[in-house]
Design a protein that fits this description.
4 strands, about 25% strand, globular
Length: about 110
């Protein structure tokens, strides 16, 4: 089954979205605000999952991915997801985007 034309396992994509959205809702200062979700593919046919929240800080990102601060991002890394994040500023909505890239050739 393909997800946005991605040939990787659908369950892996759904679990990754679930973990990233749960983290954003719990830690992203999102009470009463929306969480952004963007899914696409890279030129290499990898699945790109971006989740945006309203907290521009992520001081312990590496520790979270390593599993020392919860298990959500760690699980995504265990699925083979390449994790990154970047803050963004704006008059309307400062915050951050957490990104997971899942390889397309994973079966």
């Amino acid at each position: 089954m393909a997800t946005f034309g991605w040939v990787g396992p659908l369950g892996l994509a759904v679990a990754t979205v679930d973990h990233l959205v749960r983290n954003a809702s719990e830690f992203g200062r999102c009470a009463g605000k929306e969480i952004g979700l963007r899914i696409g593919r890279t030129e290499a046919d990898d699945l790109l999952i971006d989740v945006t929240d309203h907290n521009p800080a992520f001081p312990f990102f590496e520790q979270a991915v390593a599993g020392f601060l919860g298990k959500g991002l760690w699980r995504v890394a265990q699925y083979g997801g390449v994790m990154s994040w970047h803050p963004h500023t704006g008059e309307y909505a400062p915050g951050k985007t957490v990104r997971a890239v899942l390889r397309g050739d994973r079966s």
